[in-house]
């Protein structure tokens, strides 16, 4: 699915906030002709607005009746309307009901006060700006207020590409979805040749890294002392698989260690190469893969390196199980592999992961208050969680401020 910047006047291809390009489908004939918007539900999710709002906005602007079937995600505007025209109207809806009036950021929520006034609450700059109550849509919004937002669900742009599927998966692990952070990863990874393709291009001479059992053993022995500890996945039943050189997880961990900054491969890998390697090993959808990325790819400069790899982490973290494994990888990274990250690096890494939607609030809070021996020993687990305290306090303060804002609006 094609995606565009939510603010279409911004031509920066790295602009964070994205949405699907609006599509139309004309159905019926004569007086029964109508325009169906098949991806309106995805657009609504990207804007953090019910899909009925922009659809109703179209009806107000065009003087046309609208129909909503939210259960089946079917949104209709009566009459025949070109996609170009509706995209222009969508820009108008975004300007009036999504963008913060102060900073023009789309990361806003709609709040309705007791007197019926509608406000845009900006999570980026903190401004509370009024919506133009003269527009007809405001009556519809007042009668159909936005659903209460669940804690831990962040703002606009997250759902921009969530209909793009990378394929099947098993063990209850989702295949993952592309969004504004990760669409680039899949396209770049697709351009990286496989080992077989590289061999053909070089006349049959294989110049890629040898992943045979003998080669893996030789490289592991050559690595600096203690580095093999980073390949341990978790306590208990996973240990045996982690120590098996034929395991794809073992091979992935070795590859990450060799191709990280200062690794023995002599060059630092890209995010696309990390994803491509996971694909080659058939573990791109597995929760333990993100744990290995976190604990084996980063160095003592992890806070700086996060910007380079945040896209592949966001792409591969697709479920609660993935998030818990990601936190387990963080425990091993800071608690064992790179202890210099304790204490200042841990809260910064958590903030970075939270901001790219790789971690949900409730999962982080539960992790922060429940010591576990699954990934590290109990003392190390406590140490990492104590280091995370500034970030956990920030989450609590953000919740408190949000509750106070709701109370203030109710008192208006």
From TrEMBL:
<dbReference type="GO" id="GO:0071074">
    <property type="term" value="F:eukaryotic initiation factor eIF2 binding"/>
</dbReference>
<feature type="domain" description="W2">
    <location>
        <begin position="242"/>
        <end position="405"/>
    </location>
</feature>
<keyword id="KW-0396">Initiation factor</keyword>
<dbReference type="InterPro" id="IPR045196">
    <property type="entry name" value="IF2/IF5"/>
</dbReference>
<keyword id="KW-0342">GTP-binding</keyword>
<keyword id="KW-0547">Nucleotide-binding</keyword>
<dbReference type="InterPro" id="IPR016190">
    <property type="entry name" value="Transl_init_fac_IF2/IF5_Zn-bd"/>
</dbReference>
<protein>
    <recommendedName>
        <fullName>W2 domain-containing protein</fullName>
    </recommendedName>
</protein>
<dbReference type="GO" id="GO:0005829">
    <property type="term" value="C:cytosol"/>
</dbReference>
<dbReference type="InterPro" id="IPR016024">
    <property type="entry name" value="ARM-type_fold"/>
</dbReference>
<comment type="similarity">
    <text>Belongs to the eIF-2-beta/eIF-5 family.</text>
</comment>
<dbReference type="InterPro" id="IPR003307">
    <property type="entry name" value="W2_domain"/>
</dbReference>
<feature type="region of interest" description="Disordered">
    <location>
        <begin position="140"/>
        <end position="180"/>
    </location>
</feature>
<dbReference type="InterPro" id="IPR002735">
    <property type="entry name" value="Transl_init_fac_IF2/IF5_dom"/>
</dbReference>
<dbReference type="GO" id="GO:0005525">
    <property type="term" value="F:GTP binding"/>
</dbReference>
<dbReference type="GO" id="GO:0005092">
    <property type="term" value="F:GDP-dissociation inhibitor activity"/>
</dbReference>
<dbReference type="InterPro" id="IPR016189">
    <property type="entry name" value="Transl_init_fac_IF2/IF5_N"/>
</dbReference>
<dbReference type="Pfam" id="PF02020">
    <property type="entry name" value="W2"/>
</dbReference>
<dbReference type="GO" id="GO:0003743">
    <property type="term" value="F:translation initiation factor activity"/>
</dbReference>
<dbReference type="GO" id="GO:0001732">
    <property type="term" value="P:formation of cytoplasmic translation initiation complex"/>
</dbReference>
<keyword id="KW-0648">Protein biosynthesis</keyword>
<dbReference type="Pfam" id="PF01873">
    <property type="entry name" value="eIF-5_eIF-2B"/>
</dbReference>
<feature type="compositionally biased region" description="Acidic residues">
    <location>
        <begin position="167"/>
        <end position="180"/>
    </location>
</feature>
């Amino acid at each position: 699915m094609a995606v565009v910047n939510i603010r279409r006047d911004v031509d920066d291809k790295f602009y964070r906030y994205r949405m699907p390009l609006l599509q139309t489908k004309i159905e019926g004939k004569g007086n029964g002709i109508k325009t169906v918007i098949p991806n309106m539900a995805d657009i609504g999710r990207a804007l953090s607005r019910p899909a009925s709002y922009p659809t109703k906005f179209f009806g107000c602007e065009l003087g046309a009746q609208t129909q909503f079937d939210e259960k089946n995600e079917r949104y209709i505007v009566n009459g025949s309307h070109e996609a170009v025209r509706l995209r222009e109207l969508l820009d108008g809806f975004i300007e009036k009901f999504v963008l913060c009036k102060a900073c023009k950021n789309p990361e806003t929520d709609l709040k309705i006060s007791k007197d019926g006034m509608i406000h845009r609450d900006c999570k980026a700059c903190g401004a509370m700006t009024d919506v133009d109550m003269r527009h007809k849509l405001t009556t519809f919004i007042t009668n159909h207020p936005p659903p209460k937002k669940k804690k831990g669900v962040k703002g606009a742009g997250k759902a921009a590409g969530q209909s793009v599927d990378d394929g099947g998966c098993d063990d209850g692990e989702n295949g993952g979805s592309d969004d504004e952070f990760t669409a680039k990863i899949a396209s770049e990874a697709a351009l990286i040749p496989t080992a077989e393709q590289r061999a053909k291009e070089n006349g049959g001479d294989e110049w890629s890294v040898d992943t045979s059992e003998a080669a893996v053993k030789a490289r592991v022995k050559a690595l600096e002392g203690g580095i093999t500890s980073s390949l341990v996945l978790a306590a208990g039943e996973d240990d045996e698989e982690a120590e098996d050189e034929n395991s794809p997880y073992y091979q992935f961990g070795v590859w990450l260690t060799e191709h990280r900054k200062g690794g023995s491969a002599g060059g630092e890998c890209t995010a696309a190469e990390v994803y491509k390697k996971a694909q080659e090993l058939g573990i791109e959808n597995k929760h333990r893969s993100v744990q290995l990325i976190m604990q084996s790819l980063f160095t003592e400069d992890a806070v700086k390196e996060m910007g380079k790899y945040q896209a592949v982490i966001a792409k591969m973290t697709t479920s609660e199980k993935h998030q818990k494994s990601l936190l387990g990888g963080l425990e091993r990274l800071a608690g064992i592999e790179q202890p210099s990250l304790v204490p200042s690096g841990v809260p910064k890494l958590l903030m970075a992961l939270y901001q790219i939607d790789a971690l949900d609030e409730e999962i982080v809070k539960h992790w922060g208050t429940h010591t576990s021996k699954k990934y590290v020993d109990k003392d190390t687990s406590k140490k990492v969680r104590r280091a995370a305290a500034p970030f956990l306090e920030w989450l609590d303060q953000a919740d408190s401020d949000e509750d106070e804002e709701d109370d203030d609006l109710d008192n208006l």
